[in-house]
Amino acid sequence: MSAQLSTTDFPPLKNDLIIRAAKGESVDRVPIWIMRQAGRYLPEFREMRSKQSFFELVQNPQLACEVTMMPINRFDLDAAIIFSDILVIPQALGMVVEMLPSKGPSFPSPLIVPADLAKLNKDCDVKKELGYVFEAITLTRHTLQGRVPLIGFSGAPWTLMSYMIEGGGSNTQSKAKAWLYKYPEESHELLKILTNVIIDYLVEQVCAGAQLLQVFESHAGCLDHTLFVKFALPYIRVISKRVRDKLKERKVACVPMIIFAKDGHFVLEELSQSHYEVIGLDWTIKPQQARRICGDTLTFQGNLDPCALYASKDDLTKMAKDMLSKFGYKNYIANLGHGIYPDIDPENVKHLVDQVHKISQEMIQKDQTTTN
Ligand SMILES: O=C(O)CCc1c2[nH]c(c1CC(=O)O)Cc1[nH]c(c(CC(=O)O)c1CCC(=O)O)Cc1[nH]c(c(CC(=O)O)c1CCC(=O)O)Cc1[nH]c(c(CC(=O)O)c1CCC(=O)O)C2
């Protein structure tokens, strides 16, 4: 249905705060969005999910668009993120991924030995395999009517590699890390396959209408500095460079890119030199320390502890104030330091969003009055 929708002629943007913040431009209030903002903490999502499996929702552009719009219709958020998952890439490469109740993602046939790489559909046609994501993006851009920008996303190569080997979530990632020590060459081979698919996937998302891109390196924290620099960082860097080059070749305007390496404070300096406009921060690093490491020109995103949303509204206000006073209102996008948990009260999300806007607006107005 959305195949007939234009991928170039979209309704004009009415709220460009997040794009301005990503580029380091002035804002009249700090933008905020929430990782996993469409999902299980919303009763309307649970209702829809009770009738369809997770991947049925993701693979149906109409339903993915509806889910993406749920938090936008509820809260005064400054961005939408397309409803999907990082694990659609292993699926595009031919792996079966199931979402099991109370267990999460599960791969019935994970990669066990390097010979298993032969099973992957390495030259997969991203446009064909993941066409439903691009359709959902185009449909959502039109449905948004320019209310807020739409973010596209992908998992980073190391994080996806670890899922494909572990076969699901893992506290240690020991099976995947064993590959890095035992089979470094084949690990690089797999990381290159993933990188090529991710680049095409992100480029197509922008061509379909995504206005920012986030790359999730969710499993950064289980690597040490040496392993990260060898097996994760080079691919993160290639992605930002090649996505920009490919968009230029296709004469499509580049969009700001966000890198979020969870628990990756030990590589912040390297990430700050990786050509992403925005660095996502989890809650384990002090804002001032991150600034010292990365300098003043990059934009930060984060870093409220997702559990802060269990606090009382008064305490949440105090935490929002503290976060804004430490990050400042320039070069900053408010967000959690990881995805929102399923048992959070949506009322607290509304409170956080409204408080970030109110407090930052007051800070900006106060500074303008003192400089005038
Ligand atoms: O809001 C939106 O529109 C997009 C939401 C979104 C979903 N997955 C991701 C996003 C983007 C975003 O975070 O805003 C991306 C994502 N999927 C997984 C990870 C790794 C991780 O969580 O460590 C990421 C990156 C996010 C990050 O680092 O914060 C992998 C994953 N996918 C699902 C699970 C199970 C779960 O219970 O959460 C996991 C983690 C498994 C593990 O390793 O422990 C399934 C899933 N993906 C999304 C949803 C909706 C929701 O959050 O409620 C779900 C739950 C599915 C269900 O059971 O209904 C959407």
Provide an overview of this structure:
The mean pLDDT is 97. This protein has one domain (16-371): TIM Barrel (Alpha-Beta Barrel). It is globular, with a radius of gyration of 20 Å. It has a seven-stranded parallel beta sheet with strand order 1-4-5-6-7-8-9. Helix 8 crosses helix 9, helix 9 packs across helix 10 and helix 14 crosses helix 15 (346-371). Helix 12 (268-272) links the parallel strand 6 (257-261) and strand 7 (278-281). 48% of the residues lie in helices and 11% in strands. The chain starts with 16 loop residues before the first helix and ends with a helix. It contains 15 helices and nine strands. It has helices at residues 17-22, 43-49, 54-58, 61-74, 88-92, 126-129, 131-144, 157-166, 174-182, 184-208, 225-249, 268-272, 287-294, 313-327, 346-371; strands at residues 80-81, 98-100, 104-106, 150-155, 212-217, 257-261, 278-281, 299-304, 332-336. The chain is an alpha/beta fold and 372 residues long. Ligand LTHDCQKB is lined by residues 35-40, 49, 54, 68, 81, 83, 85-87, 99, 104-105, 153, 169, 216, 218, 262, 338-339, 342. Ligand LTHDCQKB binds at residues 35-40, 49, 54, 68, 81, 83, 85-87, 99, 104-105, 153, 169, 216, 218, 262, 338-339, 342. It is found in: Cytoplasm.
